[in-house]
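anyone seen this seq b4? input:
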Amino acid sequence: MSLIFFLVILPGIGSYAQTIPVACGSSVVRYGVIGNNGTSVFDWTIAGGAIVNNYNDSIDVQWNDVVGAHIITVVETNIYGCEGEPYLETIMVTTPFIDLGVDVEMCQNETEEFIASSADITDYLWQDSTIGETLIASTEGVYWVRITDVSGCVASDTVAVTIHELPIVDLGSDTAICEPGAILTLDPSDNWSNSFAWFDGDDLPLSNSPTIDVTSRTEDQEFWVSVTDEFGCEGTDTIVVRLCGKLTIPNVFTPNGDGINEVWEIEELFVFEDLTIDIFNRWGERVFHSYGYSSDSFWDGNDSKGKKLPMDAYYYVIDLHNGEEPIVGNVTIVR
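predicted toks r here
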């Protein structure tokens, strides 16, 4: 007895937009037949997949993810025990491949390019809704892409990005060394356990130690340090150590309005951006304070409220905040 039937894909279980000749790897697809007699029994055989549900004239097939041609075979037996010829249908199983690589660790301000290139891809969709073949990652988080091939099959991959902050390196403000023989220790201000590289203004290597000592200068000189942490992230900072001769600190000035010697002038101090000056009267009361000291902030003999101070000797403390001991002494106002 000759039985005539054909294989159809049925609604309700098919994955994506598959047609009979093509199936997506790992998908479940329902197939059915229409035979000569509604009471027939159908015997199914699947190569490259497994029957997960059998409804006699239809089955749900779980395909494996091995790309290639796979065979569905079905044989119909009618109520009289007559068996038809086996009917075979070749199903091409396809599985798009996408690999974004391993999780990424990078340093602040770096970027990573992810490429989702794969054969026969028609659509790309990234987690930020962009649809290009590549994505540039610059922030920490989880990135994923979903690709669709010409057969409507879908694959995806996910990768995590971790961003490490750059080492914080601080050599302080530009400064000067004014006392002969004084030593200034340059320290990145952290207990680093990784690599260091010190250079001068000509990019000449100086040391790989955590700190370096600088003595008084014969000219302005720039120093910079590069600190690399355990993640390979690099932080840098630069400092200029300026030429400074011996400080000339007047011990008297005459703020009397004649235009001569009206302020307590110490020109060399302008290079010390972090210095503080405090001046006290004979009773220990602070009458003047300055953060930094330049021509627009020289002491004019007035107190912090702008009131003229009487003729007298005053005690000063100049702290350069460069590692040297504060400079102390007396200055007298003469009116």
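The chain has four domains: 7-94, 104-164, 175-242, 252-333. The two ends are 134 Å apart (CA to CA). kinda curious what u guys think
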